[in-house]
Amino acid sequence: MSGTILSVLMLAGIALTGGGIYMLTTGRDRKQGWLMIGAGAVMFANVAIWAVPL
Asked: Residues 27-52: pLDDT tens digits?
């Protein structure tokens, strides 16, 4: 079950980061683009923390 959750978090992080980059490059809403990139980075950090074996 945890593998599925980590996979979904990775997909969501990729989608958020890609959407944020798209918003930054098109110049639509720069603040929201940076926030999306930040949220994607937080998701990647969460996956990294949970995936590290103890």
From this structure: 888 999 999 999 999 999 999 999 88
Going from N- to C-terminal start, the domains of the chain cover 2-51
**SS3 for 1?**
coil
Tokens 């980059």 belong to: 21
Q: pTM score, two decimals? A: 0.86
Q: How many CB atoms lie within 10 A of CB 5?
A: 12
Q: Quote the tokens at residue 16.
A: 């958020």
Q: Give the tens place of pLDDT for each residue, 13-32.
A: 999 999 999 999 998 889 99
Neighbours of 9 (CB within 10 A): 16
